[in-house]
Amino acid sequence: MAFREYGNYDAVGLADLVRKKHVSASELLDEAIARTAKVDPQINAVVVKHYDYAKRQIARELPGGPFTGVPFLLKDLELLEGTRTTSGASLYKDNVADHTGTLAQRFLDAGVTIFGKSSSPEFGLMPTTEPRLFGPTRNPWNLAHSSGGSSGGAAAAVAARILPVAHASDGGGSIRIPASASGVFGLKPTRARNPVGPDRGEGWGGFSCGHVVSISVRDSAAMLDAIHGPESSSLYYAPSPERPFAEEVGRDPGRLRIAFTDKSPYGDAIDPEIAAATRDVASMLAGLGHEVEERAPALAADPAAVMSTIVGANTALNVRLAEQRLGRAMTDQDFEVLTLATAHNGQKATAADYVAAQLGAFQISRGLAAFFETCDVFLCPTLCLPPLRIGELNPMSRDLSHIAPILRRYIPATSMFNMSGQPSMSVPLAWNSAGLPLGMMFAGRFGDEAGLFRLAAQLEQARPWKHKLPPVCS
To answer: For the chain, what is the radius of gyration of the CA atoms?
Structure first.
């Protein structure tokens, strides 16, 4: 195999080459490592490199899974026994995991070689990836801009073609935000589709889930086939799919009822190029035979207020556990100012405040369920501003008042689908005049990843993105 062709293959394609013995897992790993060496000094996406771990995997013989031999990165929030896992926090810069998370084990069982960890903001709290511990992850399309967050390292690495697919997770948009900012495909699955154990039954009150970002739609579908399903300790289950998700890719989606909006749910003005791109995609959908109507769900509660309380409580627990372990109060030498402030807000909230936030999430979810009785898919911009510039959000600022207004304008629509648990995807269908990607977000009914994969594959054919490469590309 001519390795210059590596970047032309998605993960399914690379696994097929290994299966047919056209290339070995070791050769693919060497290529991924070489590509990391070439572009990572510019984008800073692969912040923990454990190449020996991947080489030991190959030496022990990889399991015969659907992705055997494909190089892979875990997000630096997921535990992998014997490897450094920092959660982007200075306090944990030398932390080595003493066990493997359920999702990481399923990736291993699928046959991937895990050669490192991709960067995340501290505890995954920000929609940009600029942890103090490792410094900013830069967007391969323009190094002055963020690759998004919290799975910003994963999206940047995939966009720069270090590898075709990488682990990502999403508690308020953290798969879709970086997929949009970096010009790759990212689907957030239905709540409880993928496991989050063994140490917890749910993340961020059921908002958080893990999956991947990828070059192709079929990689996302095939990986979901490989990793989905409950574990013995799961609190609840997602509806079973009718057939393998990979079989949905290429199936006729039928004539879908698609509602769309080019406006923020808060009524704030959005970037005019993003609004125009949304309307253009809506027009394309109509041209593909879908029934397209301009309307949007009304929200019964403020998603930002719900997120603030739920995330604050979870962050407060993270800080408390660190204090109990070390026997002292945490300072900004241990955690970023934003983390400590978020934890402080969580500590101030009462148990009744937390239940009220849960009720707000339910009210949003109930309203979305009613909305989706009259449509099959909802389209809106993933981001309402272009990818942020590096430094625009500063988690070490003594004055954090700049953050909430930016988040309200930047990511007003992603978190509602974490609250409802519905599947939602960002599809790279547009670029602005400055050459930055503008992802389009599609949400489906609870449990209907199949419908989204069918639509995504149709869009991938109608407006291919795989050939679009950023200026910083391996």
So the answer is: 21
pLDDT by residue (tens digit) across 96-145?
999 999 999 999 999 999 999 999 999 999 999 999 999 999 999 999 99
Is the CB of residue 166 less than 8 Å from the CB of residue 73? yes
Instruction: Tell me the pairing of strands 71-75 and 113-118.
Output: parallel
Chunk the chain into consecutive blocks of 10 residues (it has 474) and report each block's average pLDDT, rounded to whole numbers.
Answer: 78 97 95 97 98 98 97 98 98 98 98 98 98 98 98 98 98 98 98 97 97 98 98 96 98 98 94 98 98 97 97 98 98 98 98 98 98 98 98 96 97 98 98 98 98 98 97 96
- Given the structure tokens 């979870």, which residue do they identify? 314
Instruction: Residue 150: give the domain boundaries.
Output: 3-462
Q: How far apart are CA 418 and CA 410, in angstroms?
A: 17
What span, in angstroms and rounded, lies between the C-alpha atoms of 129 and 46? 12
What would the pLDDT profile of 415-441 be if each residue is shown by its tens digit?
999 999 999 999 999 999 999 999 999
Longest dimension (CA), the chain: 63
Domain membership flag for residue 467: no
Contact 233, 202 (CB under 8 A): no
List CB contacts of 51: < 8 A, sequence separation 6 or more: 29, 33, 115, 116
Assigned domain for 249 exists: yes
Say if residues 297 and 378 touch (Cβ distance below 8 Å). yes
Distance CA 433, CA 443 (A): 26
Closest residue by Cα to residue 175 from 245, 96, 77: 77
Specify the pairing of strand 142-146 against strand 138-139: antiparallel
| 260 CB neighbour count, 10 Å cutoff | 25
First and final CA of the chain: distance in angstroms? 17
In a domain, 451, yes or no: yes
Q: Which residues are catalytic?
A: 75, 150, 174
Q: Where are the beta strands (DSSP E) in 55-178?
A: 71-75, 113-118, 138-139, 142-146, 165-170
Give the count of domains, the chain: 1
Does the CA dihedral 60-66-72-76 come out positive or negative? negative
HSE of 393, CA atoms in CB hemisphere, 13 A = 28
What's the pLDDT score for residue 1? 46
- Please report whether residue 239 resides in a domain: yes
The secondary structure of 327-369, three-state, reads CCCCCCCCCCHHHHHHHHHHHHCCHHHHHHHHHHHHHHHHHHH
What CATH number corresponds to the domain at position 367?
A: 3.90.1300.10
